[in-house]
Amino acid sequence: MTITIPITQAREELTSLVDNVKRKLDEYVITVNGTPAAVVISSAEYESWKETNEILSDLELTKAIKKGEKDVDKGRIYSLEQLRKELKLVF
Fold first, then answer.
1. Rounded to whole angstroms, how far apart are CA atoms 78 and 39?
2. C-alpha span between 9 and 17 (Å, rounded)
3. Which of 34, 40, 70, 78 could form a disulfide with 82 if both were Cys (CB 3.0 to 4.6 A apart)?
Protein backbone atom coordinates (compact mmCIF):
# COMPACT_ATOMS: atom_id res chain seq x y z
CA MET A 1 0.00 0.00 0.00
CA THR A 2 1.27 3.49 -0.82
CA ILE A 3 0.98 5.97 2.02
CA THR A 4 1.70 9.69 1.70
CA ILE A 5 3.06 11.46 4.77
CA PRO A 6 4.75 14.79 5.50
CA ILE A 7 8.46 14.80 6.24
CA THR A 8 7.89 15.82 9.87
CA GLN A 9 5.83 12.67 10.45
CA ALA A 10 8.37 10.53 8.57
CA ARG A 11 11.13 11.87 10.81
CA GLU A 12 9.17 11.02 13.96
CA GLU A 13 8.17 7.54 12.75
CA LEU A 14 11.23 6.46 10.74
CA THR A 15 11.79 3.20 12.63
CA SER A 16 8.15 2.24 12.18
CA LEU A 17 8.21 3.19 8.49
CA VAL A 18 11.21 0.98 7.82
CA ASP A 19 9.57 -1.89 9.70
CA ASN A 20 6.34 -1.51 7.69
CA VAL A 21 8.29 -1.37 4.44
CA LYS A 22 10.10 -4.60 5.33
CA ARG A 23 7.20 -6.56 6.84
CA LYS A 24 4.11 -5.30 5.01
CA LEU A 25 5.73 -4.08 1.79
CA ASP A 26 4.21 -0.64 2.38
CA GLU A 27 5.54 2.25 0.29
CA TYR A 28 5.76 5.79 1.58
CA VAL A 29 5.71 9.02 -0.39
CA ILE A 30 7.26 11.72 1.77
CA THR A 31 6.16 15.28 1.11
CA VAL A 32 7.82 18.60 1.83
CA ASN A 33 5.37 21.49 1.97
CA GLY A 34 2.74 19.22 0.40
CA THR A 35 4.90 18.28 -2.60
CA PRO A 36 6.21 14.72 -3.08
CA ALA A 37 9.95 14.77 -2.39
CA ALA A 38 11.04 11.19 -1.72
CA VAL A 39 9.85 7.60 -1.64
CA VAL A 40 10.66 4.89 0.90
CA ILE A 41 10.47 1.34 -0.48
CA SER A 42 11.97 -2.00 0.51
CA SER A 43 15.49 -2.80 -0.62
CA ALA A 44 14.12 -5.76 -2.63
CA GLU A 45 11.70 -3.46 -4.46
CA TYR A 46 14.52 -0.99 -5.12
CA GLU A 47 16.79 -3.71 -6.55
CA SER A 48 13.94 -4.96 -8.74
CA TRP A 49 13.31 -1.41 -9.97
CA LYS A 50 17.00 -0.94 -10.80
CA GLU A 51 17.11 -4.23 -12.71
CA THR A 52 13.98 -3.34 -14.68
CA ASN A 53 15.43 0.07 -15.48
CA GLU A 54 18.67 -1.51 -16.74
CA ILE A 55 16.72 -3.90 -18.98
CA LEU A 56 14.58 -1.11 -20.41
CA SER A 57 17.70 0.99 -21.02
CA ASP A 58 19.17 -1.75 -23.22
CA LEU A 59 17.59 -1.11 -26.63
CA GLU A 60 18.75 -4.41 -28.14
CA LEU A 61 17.35 -6.40 -25.24
CA THR A 62 14.08 -4.46 -25.35
CA LYS A 63 13.76 -5.21 -29.09
CA ALA A 64 14.43 -8.91 -28.45
CA ILE A 65 11.77 -9.01 -25.73
CA LYS A 66 9.21 -7.34 -28.00
CA LYS A 67 10.06 -9.75 -30.83
CA GLY A 68 9.64 -12.67 -28.44
CA GLU A 69 6.25 -11.38 -27.34
CA LYS A 70 5.15 -11.13 -30.99
CA ASP A 71 6.35 -14.69 -31.62
CA VAL A 72 4.27 -15.90 -28.68
CA ASP A 73 1.22 -13.98 -29.94
CA LYS A 74 1.61 -15.64 -33.35
CA GLY A 75 2.01 -19.10 -31.85
CA ARG A 76 5.66 -19.42 -32.80
CA ILE A 77 6.67 -21.21 -29.64
CA TYR A 78 8.23 -24.57 -28.83
CA SER A 79 8.01 -26.80 -25.81
CA LEU A 80 11.20 -27.76 -24.01
CA GLU A 81 10.82 -31.30 -25.35
CA GLN A 82 10.50 -30.00 -28.94
CA LEU A 83 13.67 -27.94 -28.51
CA ARG A 84 15.55 -30.92 -27.12
CA LYS A 85 14.58 -33.02 -30.14
CA GLU A 86 15.32 -30.22 -32.61
CA LEU A 87 18.73 -29.51 -31.11
CA LYS A 88 19.42 -33.20 -30.43
CA LEU A 89 20.05 -32.52 -26.76
CA VAL A 90 20.09 -35.29 -24.19
CA PHE A 91 19.19 -34.55 -20.57
1. 42
2. 10
3. 78
Check if the beta carbon of residue 1 is closer than 8 Å to that of residue 27.
yes
Work out whether strand 35-40 and strand 2-6 pair parallel, antiparallel, or are unpaired. Answer: unpaired
User: Tens digits of per-residue pLDDT, 52-81?
Assistant: 999 999 999 999 999 999 999 999 998 888
Structural domain span for residue 28: 2-42
Query: Around 48, how many Cα atoms within 13 Å sit in the side-chain half-sphere?
Result: 5
Q: Residue 9: which CATH number?
A: 3.40.1620.10
User: Which of 32-41's residues contact partners 24+ apart within 8 Å by CB, and which partners?
Assistant: 32/6, 32/7, 34/6, 36/4, 37/7, 40/10
Q: Model pTM greater than 0.90? A: no
